[in-house]
Amino acid sequence: MSQEVLIRVKGVNKQFDLGKTVVHALRNIDLEIYRGEYLSIMGPSGSGKSTLFNMIGALDRPSSGEVAVAGVNLTRLSPRQLAHFRGNHIGYVFQSYNLLPAYDAVQNVCLPLLFSGRSHAEAEARAKEVLTRVGLGHRLTHRPDEMSGGQQQRVAVARALANDPAIILADEPTANLDLVTGEEIIGLLSGLSKEFGVTVVTATHDHKMLASSDRILWVKDGAVDRLERREDLDIRIGKVT
Ligand SMILES: Nc1ncnc2c1ncn2[C@@H]1O[C@H](COP(=O)(O)OP(=O)(O)O)[C@@H](O)[C@H]1O
Ligand SMILES: [Mg+2]
Q1: Ligand 1 atom closest to residue 16's alpha carbon, by position in its atom list
Q2: pLDDT digits (tens, 9 = 90+) for 133-174
Q3: Is residue 230's pLDDT more than 90?
């Protein structure tokens, strides 16, 4: 892990105006994420994890403050520039996999490749390569309903990896999986982080998933509660290994 800051979140606030009330989903968040690190965002349901993800992933804009990725200030990009930026630099993994049910594994992984302008032949070759990397070389032509939850999430990870992104954002990627399968997905993400130097940011509220993280950001009521390195966490919870 380098100490190069890849993602810089500065003074970010996000409010949702619901007419009668205003929800302060994020309060003055400052955060630097290094290239190649694996950062877990921990916090109870409703603490602002997904909202923070949407800011980092350029899926939504802050009410105030700035988010910059590789020196590019996302808050200044047009919707078209943002779409281009997302497609080329960020891969997304969601709790519910979000695969297209009528498409097989290869076709699902081909989609972002075709959107970014690859030919069908190139896209298919790359899709097979990344599916093999995530351990699905034997399930290339299976549709989502012909795969287990863990396998579907592997397809989603392959799809996120397809365009060789600098960042993979995974919002509660293990929430629908049993413990062992969830640990396998986390292991896969952390392996990709080490092998390709991709920066991985995951949200979770499962403490058992922290072992692979380089650092852990704890959020509470939309604000940073604390940020700690895993070594320090191990010491704090008395794990002497
Ligand atoms: N689109 C929205 N409109 C209104 N309130 C929202 C919206 N998205 C999130 N919120 C509120 O913002 C807070 C943080 O939500 P969220 O980021 O989804 O939390 P988490 O992912 O940690 O469960 C919650 O109180 C939630 O109800
Ligand atoms: Mg959430």
Answers
A1: 4
A2: 999 999 999 999 999 999 999 999 999 999 999 999 999 999
A3: no
Is 155 inside any structural domain? no
Helix, strand, or coil (residue 98): coil
Q: Is residue 133 part of a domain?
A: no
In tens, the pLDDT along 54-96 reads 999 999 999 999 999 999 999 899 999 999 999 989 999 999 9
Our answer on whether the CB atom of 36 is closer than 6 Å to any ligand 1 atom is: no
Residue with the smallest CA separation from ligand 1 atom 12 is 25
Q: Which residues surround ligand 2, an ion (CB under 5 A)?
A: 49-50
Asked whether residue 88 is domain-assigned, the answer is yes
Q: Ligand 1 pocket: which of 24, 40, 50, 224 to mutate (most atoms <8 Å of CB)?
A: 50
In total, how many domains does the chain have?
1
Q: pLDDT at residue 209 above 80?
A: no
Please give the pLDDT value at position 144.
97
Q: Is 174 in the pocket of ligand 1 (CB under 6 A)?
A: no
In whole angstroms, give the CA distance from residue 26 to residue 183: 29
66 CB contacts (<8 Å, ≥6 apart)? 8, 9, 10, 11, 12, 73, 74, 75
- CB of 21 within 6 A of ligand 1: the answer is no
Q: Which residue range(s) make up the domain with 209?
A: 5-97+165-236
Contact 204, 42 (CB under 8 A): yes
Answer whether residue 109 is part of any domain.
Answer: no
